[in-house]
Amino acid sequence: MIEIKSLYPPTIVNFPTGGRYVVSGSNWISVNDDVTMDDVKWTPKYRNKKFNVYGEWRVNGSNGNVYTIKHKKGFGWWCGCKGFYYRKQCRHITDIKELKKRK
Fold it and tell me: If you average pLDDT over every residue of the chain, what do you get?
């Protein structure tokens, strides 16, 4: 059993010139050809950073969902909606920014 503790889930990489590795982030472990993902045990390693949050808001979406908007120091804006997930921008953040400008 190969145990890996890292931020990223592992995968197995085969090089055409030879060599097989279990890779997770910057961890590269050379393995035999018979090793599969069933032989790899991954333990997620989480960052324990505390972020300074400028603000946090809860807004109602158009379909009745409630989303959390956060403005984090050094990381910018974040929203829990699908629009932000795919485009890194959304109307919820735009609405909060406009609201803040009016104050």
Answer: 85
